[in-house]
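Per reviewer request, we include the raw input and output of the structure prediction for the construct analysed in the revised manuscript.
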Amino acid sequence: MPRPRTPVTTLLIVLNVLAFAYEVSRVGSGLLLGGGSLQALADAGALVPVFVRQNGEYWRVVTGAFLHGSVLHILVNMYSLYVLGQFVEVIAGKRDMTIIYVVSLLASGFAVVYLSSPYDVTVGASGAIFGLFGALFAIGFKLGRPGMQLVRANIGILVLNLFITFAVPGIAVWAHVGGLIAGFIVTYLIFTPPALRRAVVTRTASDPFVRDHDVIDVPRDLDR
């Protein structure tokens, strides 16, 4: 059986890897093991709330979500993105996957900007990845009884990751929480279960007055 194509997930992973390579060129090889100065990291595009609030550097909400603090950091996040991203993209489709990721990324970034310490230097994709985690649960709820099996199977992993988020120092708590909530809400609003899509297509195809119809068509530790 051929593997499903997930171009959005693949593109996101490539962009994160390219951004990390750029980041290393700016910060230095010490970044590979978690070193390098915070100033250099900020200069490379990290999310620093005070720069956004006072200087209007809103672009940092996006750039900070594609940078990482070490090789281990990006490996963990890219594995999580690979697993969750493929699941969401296959079930929800490319368009919805893109919307979910972008909304989760922005929500997690603005949660950091307005709820974290003004001088925190934050990098990592895990806010958006937690949004995919929220999407997984929203999909489960909307799929009805079969989907509840998905929810029950992953509730333990979610609880573990939330525990790590609040218990381990140095993790951007509000990024994770903001991404998780945004991912769940946006997915619940836009996701249409496959069975309902097929019903819409059948009705549309049988209607002679309608020429066309656009049908809208698990990780371990998530560290930021």
